Prior knowledge:
- The chain is mostly beta strands.
- The protein contains no helices and 11 strands.
- Strands 2, 4, 5, 6, 9, 10 and 11 form a 7-stranded mixed sheet that branches. A 4-stranded antiparallel sheet has the order 1-3-8-7, with no helix packed on it.
Amino acid sequence: QVQLVESGGGLVQPGGSLRLSCAVSGSIVSINTMGWYRQAPGKQRELVASITSGGTTMYADSLKGRFTISRDNAKNTGYLQMNKLKPDDTAVYYCHYANTWGKGTLVTVSS
């Protein structure tokens, strides 16, 4: 069984930056694609970005250029660097890996 723990969320002013982390533990049989999703209040969960075991990345079109996904396979940790944050980025951010969801970390962008 795989466990995911997200961290790094918090309150940030518009234009600021945050780096989220997703620590993977448990029975990791193979290296899988990792995804970051977000769910804003009253909205459906949406894909933010994903990264394959080989490092190929994919981003939601609206976030390209502001968000960067990365991973450290040796540390079993994934990251989401978020820059130039906007109030619309306010959401709970979830990590997804090996058919498992983390509990999420709240990001609030507000002045």
